[in-house]
Design a protein that fits this description.
215 residues; alpha+beta; Ubiquitin-like (UB roll); Methane Monooxygenase Hydroxylase, Chain G, domain 1; 2 domains; 5 helices; 54% helix; flat; disordered N terminus
Length: 215
């Protein structure tokens, strides 16, 4: 597998942006989702217009109504039927209220699902660190510095990448050993998705560590 390392500004450099610049760069959406008597504040901060799928993924975390069980309704429009459509195309903006219909997980499956969501959240945090390691390594490559000139930086990047790999292996073991019953279909699906996510990130961490070692 060849790792594609994107070109970005090093995270170690302090970047100050005005409120206007932040607003122009990020798409920020705050809505309230009502599920029976429960209400959930959902905040989406993305570098692209948020999609229905983005909202559904956040709702799954907050309300623990799984993606395929969700029906999201806004002013008579059934959002869940077009998950890849931008929310603003439905006229959804900050402060709007959206209705959620769907059965919430319960019992042991709900407990397992919450544990898996926690693992998924931690893995995505590790993913952010890996992306920063990739960005900083690409900056070194573009600067055409020799290993002697930037050895201490490479050592730091390698250490961070190695910690990411170690943490991913730990989370892989935790997810693998989580006892999910055969009839807990939603928890099993989430467990499989997280296992695939972790294996993919392990491949990336192995490739970036190999690239740093051979620089």
């Amino acid at each position: 597998m060849v790792i594609n390392i994107p070109t970005f500004v090093s995270y170690s450099r302090t970047i100050k942006m005005s409120n206007k610049e932040i607003k122009s760069r990020y798409h920020i959406l705050h809505v309230e989702v009502q599920h029976g008597s429960d209400r959930f504040d959902v905040h989406l901060h993305l570098e692209r217009p948020p999609l229905v799928r983005d909202l559904m993924m956040e709702v799954e975390k907050k309300a623990r109504v799984t993606l395929h069980n969700q029906q999201l309704v806004f002013r008579g429009q059934r959002l869940h039927q077009t998950p890849d459509k931008e929310l603003e195309k439905f006229g959804i903006f900050n402060g709007n209220h959206i209705m959620l219909i769907g059965e919430k997980l319960s019992g042991t499956e709900d407990d397992n699902f919450r544990r898996l969501l926690s693992i998924e959240k931690d893995v995505k945090l590790i993913d952010d660190v890996l992306e920063l390691v990739c960005r900083d390594f690409e900056n070194i490559k573009q600067s055409q510095q020799t290993r002697n000139q930037c050895g201490h930086i490479l050592n730091d990047l390698y250490s961070r990448g190695e910690r990411c790999r170690s943490d991913l292996q730990t989370f892989s073991s935790i997810a693998r050993n989580l006892n999910v019953a055969p009839n807990e279909h939603d928890a099993l699906r989430k467990k499989k998705d997280i296992s695939v996510l972790i294996e993919d990130r392990l491949d990336i961490s192995n490739n970036i560590l190999s690239a740093i070692s051979s620089y």
